[in-house]
């Protein structure tokens, strides 16, 4: 990483190629089109009220009532003061979406490899191998933008860490702090967390080598510098982090106050998500072979085989028109793995896998071991609930551990000790399984924050970074004249035969699979036995075809490397040939799942939902109310796009509303619908036509009650909603609000409370009541940020009916105002401003000092 004019021009040319590659793959963006992403459509539904209010007033509301009855917009595109890191991020991602994320993949990985002192040609080759990995492309297709965003910056963070350990302290600090600030701002903490596990593995390996090489002072100095860099990056994102933490505690990701399940059974106390939810998406052990051959387990639930399908042949033979048969064979349910559903296989490339094996043989030292260990750890953790239970073999683990440790001390052969240490660690894990269960159970129960994230299969992103890095480092060893040619040929042969052997093994394993999927019984009910048999034959066909395909690509890559080692071709031809093969391999699979057919007019992306007749009928009512579509439930945001809904689409739902659904709404408790002011319910008539049913008993925006029902726990509070009258009674947890001692109120027939002004973050009511009263508001209670006022004077309000707001209102005519003024934003912005200023000074000062020192060193020379 030099700053010579030639190097700068070279890097600019590489960046230009990355821009070109990103735009070529997503070329419809040049035609003004945009990719339709299902998750982003749902996101837009959730954020519609927030976005419309911002466009109308220029004000950030930080709250929306259009989703889940009401929630903060912290995870829905909220912008915070002094968020200069986000401005820098927008500058880096200047290309049209999703080409901007592909460019980010490429440039981030390129920087990492440069930090590892890799030749720019190999760094560009590695960037292509990483950026076009199938999983990274498919998440752009389905709209996991925050995940893609985070994955783009992670290589830069690792690059900064590498620089610090290379004793490039100033540049390493700057890159780590800046990249980590950008990483945090991407707002996908699950990806950040998983890669921090890789950093821990990396740190452990570096510590072992530091002890061995007597470099502990440098190691701890490096760790200290990195801690300061990460701390500063956290402070630059203080507002978003504090806001996310606040919301997470209130959501399903926080600790539940309930100790019972809806059926009355005792609920396991947990500070995070439950085991089944965390491991619902667990990679099958055999399914992991998809890393080498893409469609071993069918690929996806919507495969397009066109006319090359047994199902197509069967349907046309049965007399179905070719167009109808083609329509069916263009979306075949071929996936038959262990996960509920997948959009594509996590294919890293047969060539990349082959190069990874080559790197494992050729690369030596700490780089190999943290990359290899990180890849293996992420693989076994991605198995989740499918991870083998070794508890019955704990005694064998104890014995193997002792043997491996003894071997480490007594075997002196070069290169053996790291592998023996690897075996000792595995034996140690097996030996502890009797006490801690499987590795997944151990991580969920004992490892900090691991139980906060679902879909453990996604931890394979760590592996998808480690494989191409080690593969490129392996090629770098081939470039070195200091490495003996015989050693190069030996490593090439071993890598080729291992990869070839894996391909042959996969081919032979075909006979042990029945190609039956989890949903086949359901499909059989729709399609019949004969057509389902044809679909299973299609699964077998793609299994065979993709296995052969991977073997061919490995053979071609091995041939290119053999010609290079034999001096038949030079480095440039090698890089070009491998780059072309990797692109043909990966892009050939990527285009099966993300292609021009996914692009639509920009307007369709900006307005993903179109109002139907039902929406238009409901919108004629200009009062404030909520709408519920039972077909959508709490897993869709279409209703939220047009109305104020009690449904929505989010991985971290408001915990109180989730519990109301599970305890009451799924049991058709109309009192709970009434108190949530659900005025319209989308129902279907006998012919299956939808219509908006009016709920005449909806309570309205606010009402006076004559009785407070005291309970002493959250369990009692939510259970009491089964048999209370929401119009005249309110349930209150007096252990939380002991000051609520008055339980009876007189409600005059003329008493009124009316909503007179509505904004997402500011709601005003007028009251007229001859008596002191207690009012219940059909808005979600949120413990932080909402301030209540009566005639301009602050007034305390309470959580009642488990999820709503309640307030004591004095007799007479009054104005009641609720304002959302989140303290977390005010406090966080001050910290963010100071941290950004400090980071800016460090960057300017650090780069200035580095340039001055280099100039001085040149003049002294």
Describe the protein's architecture and organization:
There is one protein chain. By secondary structure, the chain is an alpha+beta fold. 55% of the residues lie in helices and 10% in strands. The protein has 31 helices and 18 strands. The strands form six sheets. It has a five-stranded antiparallel sheet with strand order 11-12-18-14-15, with no helix packed on it. It has a four-stranded antiparallel sheet with strand order 8-13-17-16, with no helix packed on it. Helix 30 links the parallel strand 9 (707-711) and strand 10. The radius of gyration is 30 Å and the shape is globular.
What labels describe this entry?
single chain, 861 residues, alpha+beta, 5-stranded antiparallel beta sheet, 4-stranded antiparallel beta sheet, 31 helices
